Amino acid sequence: MKIAVIGTGNMGSGFARAFAACEGTEVVVGHRDPAKAAALAAEIGNGIEGGGIAAAVKHADVALLALPYEAIAAALDSAGDLSGKILIDISNPITADFKELLLGHTTSAAEEIQKAFPAATVVKAFNTIFAGLIGPEARADTTLQVFVAGDDETATAKVRALAEKLSFEAVNAGPLSNSRFLEPIGEMNIHFGFFLGMGPTVAPSWVRV
Question: I need a surface site. Which of 18, 89, 149, 182 has the fewest CB within 10 A?
């Protein structure tokens, strides 16, 4: 599977490194500044390429949007034809101080992205995972869950398979509208990690008893 990771920050670089280490995946990094994407790709090596957003998306089956929610629309506006592309939204639509949500209850970041870019298929995933926990080596003794929500069964199955490649337990979280519930869980995880003293090495899990 060809994966475009859009963004070169902590999340973007974490996913690019992790997917580059997986068998059966080809990774390209995209950024509005192609030089930044190229630099990250060169640093990681292993056959990764880097360039502009449109070039990265064009050559990928799946684009993982490792960007703040408020930056996603502008990035996708420059991405070219999104027909048939799967977009993985990992964002939580949070305020600048990380303490509140910008959206909720009647819509979600994932739903708003889907409305704005209907030619693509949006899948919500990874929004409860901190950057430091993306790589399997960071959680060798623990299996973390990734909640995957979407309206297209084929697309959600592909995203669950990608999560499993990174040694997560992929949990079917239902339709894309359930992102309205997943995003507040992501925000609560931010509070646990940064405001309630647990640190950015925590993640929620649904426990079966």
Answer: 18
